[in-house]
Description:
The chain has one helix spanning 3-26, and strands at 41-48, 55-61, 66-71, 79-87, 90-100, 106-118, 124-134, 140-153. By secondary structure, it is mainly beta. It has a domain at 41-153: Lipocalin (Beta Barrel). Strands 1-2-3-4-5-6-7-8 form an eight-stranded antiparallel β-barrel. A hairpin with a 5-residue loop joins strand 7 (124-134) and strand 8 (140-153).
Amino acid sequence: MTTMTWIRRTMVPTVLLLAFASCLAAEEPAILHATGQEMTGTWLVDVRPATGQPFLFIITFHSDGTCVATAGNNFTSAAYGAWARVGDRQFSGTITFFLFDANRNVSGRVKGRFNVALGDSLETFAVSNEQVIMDLDGNELQVVPGFVATGKRVAIERQATPVAPVAPAATDSRR
């Protein structure tokens, strides 16, 4: 075997392989996005604070990484936030909402930081949450840890007594 043949057969593939490997090693770590994750959808959440009364919460996770939620009470606004996948069936996010006093005047705001572990069935989850209580200027007043909750995906159900929908009558566009 000539020197040139040996170089073409061994050195060129070796150099190409090393170049390819170095390109892979130099890539930035993948950024985690919510798009395509199993959390998308609407969930009914049973919240159990460390102190105080349990309450229900409905949250919708959108595929673009945003979420919107509401609690069944008189003293908070709807909540808005963002979430991302951080591991295998593991998600983290932040939501924020306003607090109201007895006269429904805005009295403060809350930032909730949460971690979700999606169940094996992808139909339930467990969540831990801490609430950051802030004044209207965003100054942190208190951090309340220890909120735990379980969520169940809201399923599409068929009507028990279906009635065919009646389409609206067409209007005469010439009038």
